[in-house]
Design goal:
The complex is a heterodimer of chains A (389) and B (301). Chain A has 16 helices and four strands. By secondary structure, chain A is mostly helical. Chain A has one domain. Chain A has a two-stranded antiparallel sheet. In chain A, strands 3-4 form a two-stranded antiparallel ribbon. In chain A, 44% of the residues are buried. Chain B is mainly alpha-helical and 301 residues long. Chain B has a single domain, classed as ABC transporter involved in vitamin B12 uptake, BtuC (Orthogonal Bundle). Chain B contains eleven helices and four strands. In chain B, the strands form two sheets. Chain B has a two-stranded antiparallel ribbon with strand order 1-4. Chain B has a two-stranded antiparallel ribbon with strand order 2-3. The chains are: A mainly alpha (389), B mainly alpha (301).
Chain lengths: 389, 301
């Protein structure tokens, strides 16, 4: 009884927090100048936090060490882009291949990108399909590779991501994927800004949209983690054999976690295509997966709020706060040494190293944000928990 | 036929170069159970050091300056590997496994970004090493000496390494630590010095690998280490991570297959060179989940 009550207040607080965040984003976007770096951080942060949480579901909660995230993002991004290029633009986008093999586009089916229903329905459906395609491929690849253990699984999924990347760059598939060129002219976040008849923007929603999608998806993931499936995932993470002995179907639950995680990675990929306003295979390299893994571990493996916080800190530090390090600076007539293009990333990697070395269990460990405000449990109870690390 | 022979020679040579990197991966994995993501970047840094040292040591490239700078590259790379282990991995010895791996990714970031900062992101050209860069004609195609010599060098080094591991005290300590970390500590083995030795050997081989690799492919960019590093790691997994002969055989196999895929007569074959390696890996793992020569892991309840 107490448990359900607590969950209800928790869900209510979560809902309030989500609404507050969304309102804050809308207010910020319509008051601050739109050129501010803050919005790049907000948009990219929303996209990355979704992908980071999806990776956390797999690596942190189910204990499957997979490095295929960039591959599933690529699948999502391309599905989204291929389905949303307006029919009228196809010849310019696919000019190398004499037009696209697909002669329809989802927004056009509902009345075109310029109409609200065409934009919203088309984009929503494309994002959903992006997730489904990623999940389908996850199922296919999961059949053989999910039997593998820890590091072998990691390298197999990493390899799968690289194979996908090569296939999408293949010339023979050009009429669909546009070969090694990027697919442009797709609806982006700025397409959602509401304009008046003269084409002036009256209400900016370009940061609101990624936040809305990311929050919805993360809410679904959190609900999944708190369900009986989530408890089964955690049991598998702690001890596979014990979990199996308790009657958990290992293959089924691993596959479920893998597919769901990939679904949301696919959605994240679609959002990333919207953020970058193009889909291009060479962006989704293993470096991107490492980046997301870095965020997940810095946030704390097994902490959803940790992943989100770490994402925004990571994106803000790399894209915004350290920008000044890239340009020359003079203080009292003295030139500050070392400052030139590229120095930002050097400092950034040193900061990451320091965080990794001094926060062994990530910023949040396996706690969630609300846990920090609860009274601390007694020492004996904490000691018993520490053996699991 | 001539085409076949030259492709095979190139494949064996690239395979040998991958093998030199793969040994570093597999030895570290055997002892620390750590995928050392920074190893490929150590290899890249060794390449950059080769460029900067040769150009700073002498206005014109005489064989002596090149020899001196290559020895310096070897020493500095070993020092770099040693430092990375001490600064980034040693403090995390009792931390969860994932933290150490992230630390490795962090080091890899740091090395790549520093390299971008120093070089300005432009590709640098590796100097021609006398004799190694000279070409001879084999079966009608001009081939650099390095291509011919690499496999012999690799075989000699691997034999020497196996002798070291099987017949010296350090080698015995390494095997003990790889078998059981904690027990070997209790038996009085100085874990830290054994681990340092592992990193020293791995880095030295990576430095040698970089000299051979960049003599063949002369452009050094900050990300030049990523793909060879990944391939070498795949080779290590292919042979079963932790097994040195496995890694070497895996590396040769991958090198040869890769070069044959590159010349396959269908459009866009070059796009699939890297993908093919991974496809091969996944197929092998499906049938042998711990690689070709990997120890079969048994779970104890």
């Amino acid at each position: 009884m107490i448990q359900t009550k607590k969950n209800k207040t928790g869900a209510f607080l979560g809902l309030v927090a989500a609404v507050v965040v969304l309102a804050l984003v809308v207010v910020l976007e319509n008051t601050l100048p739109s050129t501010s770096q803050l919005f790049i951080v907000l948009k990219k942060g929303a996209v990355y936090s979704l992908v980071a949480v999806s990776m956390n579901l797999l690596n942190g909660f189910t204990g499957l060490f997979s490095l295929g995230q960039a591959g599933f993002m690529l699948l999502g991004a391309y599905t989204y882009a291929i389905l949303t290029v307006p029919v009228a633009q196809k010849d310019t986008v696919y000019y190398l291949y004499g037009g696209s093999a697909l002669n329809f586009s989802l927004p056009d089916l509902f009345g075109g990108v310029d109409t609200p229903q065409g934009l919203i329905l088309g984009v929503a459906l494309a994002i959903l399909l992006a997730g489904c395609v990623a999940a389908l491929f996850a199922w296919l690849i999961g059949l053989p590779v999910l039997r593998l253990k820890s590091d072998y699984l990691a390298i197999a999924t990493l390899g799968f991501a690289e194979i996908i990347r090569a296939i999408f760059q293949w010339q023979a598939l050009g009429p669909v994927t546009n070969g090694a060129n990027m697919i442009t002219q797709i609806p982006t976040f700025t397409s959602f800004n509401i304009k008046n008849a003269d084409g002036e923007v009256i209400l900016r929603l370009s940061a609101f949209v990624p936040f809305l999608v990311a929050i919805l998806c993360i809410a679904v993931i959190v609900m999944l983690i708190n369900s009986s499936y989530g408890r089964a995932f955690k049991a598998i993470r702690e001890d596979e054999i014990a979990a199996e002995a308790m009657g958990i179907n290992l293959a089924k639950h691993k596959m479920l976690s893998f597919c769901i995680s990939s679904f949301f990675a696919g959605v994240g990929g679609a959002l990333f295509a919207m953020y970058a306003s193009n889909a291009q295979a060479k962006v989704y390299t293993s470096t991107m997966t490492y980046e997301i893994l870095l965020i997940v571990v810095i946030g704390g493996i097994g902490s959803v709020s940790g992943s989100c916080i770490a994402t925004f800190l990571y994106v803000a530090a790399s894209e915004w706060w350290l920008r000044f390090l890239d340009s020359e600076m003079w203080i009292f007539g003295v030139k500050v040494p070392f400052l030139r293009t590229g120095f930002r990333m050097v400092v950034f990697s040193i900061i990451i190293m320091i965080v990794v070395l001094f926060f062994r269990r990530g910023l949040m460990g396996d706690k969630e944000l609300p846990d920090l405000f609860r009274p601390r449990p007694k020492k004996t109870a904490r000691k018993a928990g520490e053996h699991n690390g | 036929m001539e085409f076949f022979i030259s492709t095979l020679l190139f494949g064996i040579s690239v395979g040998g170069q991958y093998a030199l990197i793969a040994i570093g991966y597999t030895m570290v994995y055997g002892i620390l159970r750590l995928i050392n993501f920074a190893h490929g970047d150590v290899f890249m840094v060794a390449g950059l050091m080769g460029i900067y040292l040769t150009s700073s040591l002498g206005a014109y490239l005489s064989p002596t300056t090149i020899l001196v700078s290559l020895i310096l590259v070897l020493v500095l790379t070993v020092l770099l590997g040693f430092l990375i282990e001490r600064v980034a991995y040693k403090p995390l010895r009792t931390a969860p496994r994932m933290s150490v791996m992230i630390s490795a990714i962090g080091v890899s970031y740091l090395l790549q970004n520093t390299a971008t900062y120093v070089t300005g992101g432009q590709p640098m050209t590796y100097p021609a090493i006398p004799f190694l860069s000279d070409t001879i004609t084999v079966a009608g195609t001009p081939i650099k000496w390095v291509v011919i010599l690499t496999p012999f060098l690799v075989v000699i080094l691997v034999v020497a390494l196996t002798q070291l591991i099987n017949h010296t005290k350090v080698g015995m300590a390494m095997r003990a630590v790889a078998k059981d970390f904690e027990t070997s500590q209790l038996m009085g083995i100085k874990i830290n010095s054994v681990i340092s030795t592992t990193f020293v050997i791995g880095s030295a081989l990576a430095a040698l690998g970089s000299m051979l690799y960049f003599t063949t492919y002369q452009a050094v960019t900050p990300t030049a280490g990523a793909m060879p590093g990944l391939k070498a790691f795949v080779a290590a997994v292919f042979g079963g991570i932790g097994s040195i002969p496995g890694a070497v055989i895996g590396a040769f196999l991958i090198g040869i297959c890769e070069n044959f895929v590159k010349v396959l007569p269908f459009e866009g074959a070059t796009t699939f060179v890297d993908a093919f390696t991974f496809a091969l890996l996944i197929i092998v793992l499906v049938f042998k989940p711990t690689g070709l020569f990997g120890e079969k892991a048994t779970d104890k309840v």
